[in-house]
Specification:
By secondary structure, the protein is of the alpha+beta class. It has a domain of about 270 residues. It has 25 helices and 23 strands. The strands form 5 sheets. Strands 1, 2, 3, 4, 5, 10, 11 and 12 form an 8-stranded antiparallel β-sheet that branches. Strands 15-14-20-21-22-19-18 form a 7-stranded antiparallel β-sheet. A hairpin with a 4-residue loop joins β8 and β9.
Length: about 700
C-alpha cells in the first residue's frame, strides 16, 4: 500500500503560492496545492489524489513510454492510438491491414496479442530512499567511483524490491540527483489489442498536423491486461484471464466548456526546466540542429528504400512514425528557441541566482565554477556520443553489440553486471531482439547504415570517438556483410543468448565480428560517461538545493523535472493566441474533419465516418453550445512526451479525454513554461464514444465501461 511521504520543508515551502498551471507534481505533493486546486474548481480532496491506493490514482497506469488508465473492472485499458501502434502494426499484414482498416474484437477470444513489448505497469508503492543511495559518499571519490557506487546501491535497492517477480522496481533520481525514490510497479506482461480505429481516424492529419492546432484526431485505442488464474502476472497464455483492476475511471460524456478545470495524470518522460543557459545554447546551436539533419536524412533513406514495396512499408511504418515525431518536436524546439530567446531569459534568471548565491553560499563558493566545468565536459562528451550513434546506426549491429555485451556481463555475478544486462533484463532483451522481425528488412537496414557511415565521415575528426575509424566497414563492404550475416533471422539472433564471449570472438558472422572489434571503444566511451555522470551527480544536486532555496525565497513553484514517474498536473480548458491578432479557440468539431478532407493521405475520411457526420447522427454526444460533436480540445495543463494517453479528468475525477499532443508553440515548454501560449491537446471523450457507437459499432466496449451520459 502507498504511504504518504513528507518532503523536506525546502521542497514544499513555495507550493502554496503557485499561481500558474505550471508543474508536473508528484502525487504526494498535492495536499500542498489545495488552494490552487480549489482556485480552478477541482472538487476532489487533494489527500485522495495523493494516495496511490485510492481512486482515481489507482486507475492510472504506464505502458513504459506512454500513459493509460483502466476503464473497466476487467482490465480494459484506454490509451492513445499511437501508443498502441506497435501492437496494431505487429498484427497487421497487407491482407489484414489493421493500420488502415482498424481493428475491433467483439469478444475476448478475438483480442490479439500485443507482443512482448506491450506491457502494463501499475504503480503500487513509492518510497524515499535518498539516504540509502547517497549516505556516506566521499567527496574525494572520482566521478566514476561515485557513479558506480551509486549504481550499485540502486541495483541493491531494486533487487531487494523485486524478490517477488511479479513486480518491476526502479530508483529514479529527482531534482537532478538531489533525491531518489523507489517505485514498485506490478508488471503485467500479457496485454492484448482490443480495439483501434482506422489510422484515418486515429492519426487523421498525420505528420502534417502533428503538434498543430486546430486538430481533428481520434488518437485513442483500447488494450486489455491479462493475468494467470491466480490473479498474478503471467506469460501470455490462452488460459489467462482479464486482470481485475482495483479501480477504474468512470467515463463522463457530459462534456466540458471553456474555462472548466481539468486534472491530468500520467507518466511524463523528460523535461529540462532547470537547465543552465549554456546547456540551452548547446541544444539550440549544436545538438538539435545535428539531430534534425540526421533524422531527416534517415527518413529519406527509409522512404526511398521501402518505396513500392507494401510489406516493407508496413514493417517500417512504426519506425518512420517515431522518427517523424522526434523530428517535428526537435524542429519545434529550434523554432521555439528562435521565436523566444529562452537562453537570454535564463541568462537573467541565472544572473539573479548567482547574485543571490554569492550572499548565501554557506561554504559552497566554488560550486558554480565546478558546475560550469562539469557541464562543459558533459556537452563535449555528448557530441562524441552523437558521432558514435552515427557510426553504429544499424539494427543488425545494435543486436550484435547487445548480444556480445550480454555475454561479457554474464561472466560476472548478477549484482555486479551493468544495469540493463542483469537477469531481470533478459526478457526485455529477448523481446527487443524478437520485435526486430516486425520492423526490419536487411536491404533497408543496409541502406540506412551506408548513409549513416557517410554522415559520420563528415563529422569533425576531433569530435569522433578515438580509434574507431579504422574499425568501421567501408561502404562497398556492406552488401557482402548483410548477405553473410545470420542475424537477420530471429531464431539465429536469439540463439546467441547464453553463449560465452569466446563464441563471439570465434564467430564468422561479419556483424558479430564488428561488434567484437568495436567493444573496447564503446566501453571507453561508457567509462568516460560514468566519470562525467558521477561528477554531475556530485555537483548538480548541490546546485539544485541552492536553486530550490532561491525559488522558495521568491515564492515560486518547486517541482522536479519529469522523469517517467507518475505525475499530476492541472489546468483549465483554454484558448490561446500564438501571435498578435490571432486567437485559437479551445474546441474543434467533426465539421472540421470534412473541411480538411482532400481524399489523399493523411486527409482521407473513412466513408462510415463521413456519412455519420453528414447525416448529423450526433445523439447524446452533441455539444449544446457547439451544435455538433467536439473532437479535440485545448487545456493549460503542463505535459510532455510520455504524457501521451494520460487521463484527462473533470473536477470530479471522471474521464473526459486523453492527452495526445501539444501545440507547436508549446514545444519549448520542456525547457521553459510560458503560461500565455503553452497548451496541451486532448481528444474529447465524446468523439471517442461517438465514433465507437456510430462508426465502428463497438457496442461491447460501450457496454463494458461505466459511462455517465448528459441529462436530457
Amino acid at each position: 500500500m502507498f504511504k504518504s511521504i513528507v518532503l523536506p520543508v525546502i521542497l514544499l515551502g513555495a507550493a502554496a503560492t503557485v499561481h500558474a498551471d505550471e508543474g508536473q507534481w508528484q502525487p504526494h505533493q498535492l495536499p500542498q496545492l489545495k488552494s490552487e486546486l480549489k482556485r480552478i474548481g477541482i472538487t476532489m480532496p487533494a489527500e485522495k489524489l495523493a494516495d496511490l491506493s485510492k481512486h482515481p490514482m489507482s486507475a492510472i497506469v504506464s505502458l513504459g513510454g506512454c500513459s493509460a488508465s483502466f476503464v473497466s473492472p476487467d482490465g480494459l485499458v484506454v490509451t492513445n492510438h499511437h501508443c498502441a501502434y506497435g501492437a496494431i502494426q505487429r498484427n497487421a499484414t497487407p491482407e489484414k491491414n489493421y493500420i488502415v482498416n482498424g481493428f475491433l474484437a467483439k469478444t475476448r477470444a478475438e483480442e490479439l496479442p500485443g507482443g512482448p513489448n506491450t506491457l502494463v505497469y501499475v504503480t503500487e508503492k513509492v518510497e524515499n530512499v535518498t539516504d540509502r543511495v547517497l549516505k556516506g559518499l566521499s567527496p574525494s571519490m572520482s566521478g566514476r567511483e561515485r557513479h558506480e557506487l551509486v549504481e550499485s546501491r540502486v541495483k541493491a535497492l531494486i533487487a531487494e524490491c523485486e524478490t517477488d517477480k511479479a513486480y518491476r522496481c526502479s530508483v529514479p533520481a529527482f531534482h537532478r540527483g538531489l533525491e531518489y525514490y523507489r517505485i514498485k510497479q506490478l508488471m503485467i506482461r500479457d496485454v492484448r489489442l482490443v480495439y483501434a480505429p482506422s489510422d484515418r481516424i486515429g492519426n487523421y492529419g498525420g505528420d502534417i498536423d502533428n503538434y498543430e492546432w486546430p486538430r481533428q484526431t481520434g488518437d485513442y485505442s483500447f488494450l486489455r491486461a491479462y493475468v494467470g488464474k491466480d490473479g498474478r502476472p503471467a506469460d501470455p497464455s490462452p488460459d489467462n484471464v482479464p486482470y481485475k483492476s482495483k479501480d477504474f475511471l468512470v467515463v463522463s460524456a457530459e462534456g466540458l466548456k471553456n474555462g472548466d478545470p481539468i486534472l491530468l495524470a500520467g507518466y511524463p518522460g523528460r523535461t529540462s526546466r532547470y537547465k543552465l543557459p549554456s546547456e540551452i545554447r548547446f541544444a539550440r546551436d549544436v545538438d538539435f540542429p545535428a539531430k534534425v539533419a540526421s533524422i531527416t536524412a534517415d527518413l529519406a533513406v527509409i522512404a526511398a528504400a521501402t518505396q513500392g514495396n507494401a510489406a516493407w512499408d508496413v514493417r517500417y511504418a512504426s519506425v518512420a512514425k517515431g522518427l517523424n515525431n522526434v523530428l517535428k518536436k526537435t524542429q519545434g524546439l529550434l523554432d521555439g528557441f528562435a521565436r523566444k530567446d529562452i537562453a537570454a531569459i535564463k541568462d537573467v534568471q541565472d544572473a539573479e541566482f548567482r547574485a543571490w548565491h554569492k550572499s548565501h553560499a554557506n561554504g559552497s563558493a566554488n560550486l558554480l565554477a565546478d558546475l560550469d566545468n562539469v557541464i562543459g565536459q558533459d556537452m563535449a562528451q555528448s557530441r562524441t556520443e552523437a558521432a558514435w550513434l552515427e557510426a553504429t546506426h544499424s539494427d543488425l549491429l545494435r543486436s550484435a553489440r547487445t548480444l556480445y555485451r550480454l555475454a561479457i556481463e554474464r561472466q560476472k555475478p548478477d549484482a555486479q553486471r551493468e544495469a540493463g544486462y542483469q537477469e531481470r533484463d533478459l526478457s526485455f532483451i529477448r523481446a527487443r531482439l524478437t520485435r526486430l522481425e516486425q520492423s526490419f528488412v536487411a536491404n533497408v537496414d543496409e541502406a540506412r547504415y551506408k548513409a549513416a557511415l557517410a554522415r559520420y565521415a563528415r563529422i569533425d575528426a576531433k569530435v569522433r570517438p578515438q580509434g574507431i575509424d579504422a574499425l568501421l566497414p567501408q561502404a562497398n563492404m556492406l552488401p557482402a556483410m548483410y548477405k553473410a550475416s545470420d542475424l537477420s533471422n530471429t531464431a539465429s539472433r536469439l540463439a546467441w543468448i547464453g553463449k560465452d564471449p569466446d563464441a563471439f570472438r570465434l564467430s564468422n558472422d561479419p556483424f558479430i565480428q564488428l561488434a567484437v572489434r568495436l567493444h573496447d571503444a564503446g566501453m571507453a566511451l561508457e567509462n568516460r560517461r560514468s566519470d562525467i555522470d558521477g561528477n554531475l551527480e556530485r555537483v548538480i544536486p548541490q546546485y539544485m538545493s541552492a536553486v530550490i532555496a532561491w525559488k522558495k525565497s521568491q515564492g515560486k513553484p518547486v517541482y522536479p523535472d519529469a522523469n517517467s514517474t507518475l505525475r499530476v498536473t492541472y489546468g483549465t480548458v483554454s484558448p490561446y493566441s500564438p501571435r498578435d491578432g490571432l486567437t485559437k479557440g479551445p474546441f474543434t468539431t467533426v465539421d472540421g474533419i470534412l473541411e480538411k478532407e482532400t481524399g489523399k493521405d493523411p486527409f482521407i475520411v473513412p466513408p462510415a465516418l463521413k456519412q455519420a457526420i453528414q447525416q448529423k447522427r450526433f445523439g447524446v454526444f452533441k455539444d449544446r453550445a457547439l451544435g455538433t460533436v467536439p473532437v479535440n480540445f485545448l487545456s493549460s495543463a503542463d505535459t510532455t512526451g510520455g504524457n501521451s494517453g494520460s487521463a484527462v479528468m473533470n473536477r470530479n475525477g471522471e474521464l473526459v479525454g486523453l492527452n495526445f499532443d501539444s501545440t507547436y508553440e508549446s514545444i519549448t515548454k520542456d525547457w521553459y513554461f510560458d503560461t500565455a501560449i503553452t497548451r496541451a491537446i486532448h481528444v474529447d471523450i465524446r468523439y471517442m464514444l461517438w465514433v465507437m457507437k456510430e462508426v465502428d459499432r463497438a457496442d461491447n466496449l460501450l457496454k463494458e465501461m461505466t459511462i455517465k451520459y448528459p441529462k436530457k
